[in-house]
Design goal:
heterodimer, A: 67 residues, Ubiquitin-like (UB roll), 5-stranded mixed sheet, 1 helix, globular, B: 193 residues, alpha/beta, Rossmann fold, 18% strand
């Protein structure tokens, strides 16, 4: 399926995945992440159970220290 | 818009500054110079000599609370400002009440976990209020990779990769650039709405 990940089209070798799968597939190993699907915040505790479907607009923001 | 029109529009707006370090202090100064009148300043920290390499404070203010020193400094630019300070280490439970009256919130924390906490809480409880975050500005040079990105009501300024660490300190030019990118994003939100 195709999804939009951080404004880029991304092909995923599965019909449906959960957020945890996406983070593993993309090798996003950072701790400080903010994830939104179609504009809605997904809490860390929901990563395992929140599905990502064909055409979903996903944002994974990695926050880093400094300021 | 003329300067007068910009000033008039900004007079009725209120901006929350979460964190008064390198990002927050410089961003607040830029907004006040542009005509913003009402600010909510949040920080728990005290100024140290190490902060003077990038933060908008002065040697004789070392030891002062950042919120009080920043209030003092921006009042020197415009004595008519309406400033509320909150001298606290911000926790998730405080965010909704504290920032509910703001038109925009500037995320200007130092640590990634604090940034994440504020963004997540704002997205969950106050999703209608735009948040302008600073993310990735350590080191020097590489001006061309600093950018500003808008995701719904969340604005991200910085390069997204330059984390503070050994050999990669936060320095005045890049922190200042990102602080001003944040101020610029705030203006875009307030003047275009």
């Amino acid at each position: 399926m195709n999804i939009i990940l951080n404004n880029n089209i991304e092909q995923i070798e599965a019909d449906s995945i959960v957020v945890t799968d996406l983070l593993r597939i993309k090798n996003f190993t950072f701790k400080m992440l903010v994830v939104k699907i179609n504009g809605t915040l997904v809490k860390k505790s929901d990563y395992e159970k929140t599905a990502i479907h064909e055409g979903d607009d996903v944002m994974v923001l990695h926050l880093i220290s400094g300021g | 818009m003329t300067i007068e029109e910009i000033s008039k529009t900004l007079q009725s707006k209120k901006v929350g500054i979460a964190g008064c370090g390198g990002l927050g202090s410089n961003c607040a100064v830029a907004l006040v110079r542009t005509g913003l009148h009402s600010l909510l300043l949040v920080d728990y920290d005290v100024i140290t000599v190490d902060n003077l390499n990038r933060q908008y404070y002065f040697l004789d203010q070392v030891g002062m609370k950042k919120v009080n020193a920043l209030r003092e400094n921006i009042l020197r630019i415009n004595p008519g400002l309406n400033i509320v300070v909150s001298d606290c280490k911000l926790e998730s439970a405080d965010v909704p009440l504290l920032f509910s009256g703001c038109d925009v919130v500037v995320e200007a924390f130092d640590l990634a976990d604090q940034k994440m906490m504020l963004i997540e809480t704002m997205l969950e409880f106050l999703p209608h209020i735009p948040v302008v975050s600073g993310n990735g500005m350590a080191g020097w040079g590489r001006t061309n990779i600093l950018s500003s990105q808008k995701i719904d009501n969340l604005y991200i300024c910085g390069d997204g990769i330059s984390e503070v660490g050994p050999g990669m300190p936060p320095l005045a030019p890049r922190v200042g650039i990102v602080a001003h990118m944040q101020a610029n994003a705030v203006l875009e939100i307030l003047l275009n709405s």
